[in-house]
Design brief:
- This protein has a single domain, classed as Tetratricopeptide repeat domain (Serine Threonine Protein Phosphatase 5, Tetratricopeptide repeat), CATH 1.25.40.
- The chain starts with a helix and ends in a 5-residue tail after the last helix.
- The chain contains six helices and no strands.
- The protein is mainly α.
Amino acid sequence: MPLAFTGLERINDFSGALEVANELVEAVPASGSFRYWRALDYDRTGKSSQAMVDYMNAIQLFGDPKTVPGHVFYEWAQSYEYSDHTFSVALLAITILIAIAGGAIY
């Protein structure tokens, strides 16, 4: 199924990729990667509120937040920006990343 997800992403079929991501999350609910993939496609299909929840869950499932790539936090912040929340709330994910990294963002 991960190959199906990747194939649908490559042809910009984000609705189809979201369906596959839902199946992957149902099959392996403790996978941070599958939740991250689903978050991306929630965003790409205009479902920012659902994406925010999956980004947060993915980060928690990845384990040590210091090992989570910075772009995951950035995408989480963008979900806030595109939702009904204010810009100051969008900075939450970036603030968490900075706190975790001790100010050393690279």
